[in-house]
Design a protein that fits this description.
Elements: H1 8-21, H2 34-41, H3 45-57, E1 61-64, E2 68-71, E3 78-81, E4 93-94, E5 101-110, H4 114-120, E6 129-138, E7 141-151, H5 152-155, H6 173-179, E8 186-195, H7 198-204, E9 211-221, E10 224-234, E11 238-241
Parallel strand pairs: 3-11
Antiparallel strand pairs: 1-2, 3-4, 5-6, 6-7, 7-10, 8-9, 9-10
Helix pairs in contact: 1-3, 2-3
Length: 246
Amino acid sequence: MGASTDPVYLRVLEDLRARISEGLLEPGARVPSRNAIIARYGVGETAAKHALQVLAAEGLIEARAGSGSYVRKAPVTRRMDHDRLHYPGSPFGLEDPAGRLALEYQAEQVLPPPHIARLLGLQPASDPVIRTRYLLSADGAPIQLATSYEPVQITGGTAVAVPEQGPFAGRGVIERMKAIGIRVDEMTEEISVRPSLRNEAAVLAIAPGAPVLLVQRTHLAAGTAVEAADIVLAADGFRLRYRIPV
């Protein structure tokens, strides 16, 4: 059998990850230092550093300045239910809110980022959208960040031009579009996991680079996208549940 072609750091990473998941390294325990990893596994400094960086990005360990890295306490996983469409800016709501829920929002007219422009069939340099950012919190702790985009060429000058203003404030995309004669007949969602961006981490009070669930949602009417949104949650704190009538 030939020698393994896997990167050297994977051997370190997989062993430390297994020790954490099996409880051999308990929450709060100090993780072997870079020098200790080099001596124990017979690897170089680059491999040791990379293994620790990946564990931190996965949210398994946290670095403490001047002290080293420690195993993070795994957060309690909560379920977000999909069938709560009355939550503005997002179809998700906590299944069992243990305390008070609060929703903050901010809307402004901007030019869309390229990936949103592609979804909505807009020119990113010339076709404005109304961007509404929503932050859902429970007992003061941020849990979900949703950013919704609606083309001004569709809603501009109507009673639903700004999602949280006017007679249809907070009614949700489907009902608001119906009020101006647009029938939403399809909603698509793509779910992925990626490292958090710095601004997302700051808002959600998680470590920069910690994994998040990204739900990219689009509302369509007769095949034309009329709203698109990015919904972000901490990956290690939530599960998404969908109820589909049969």
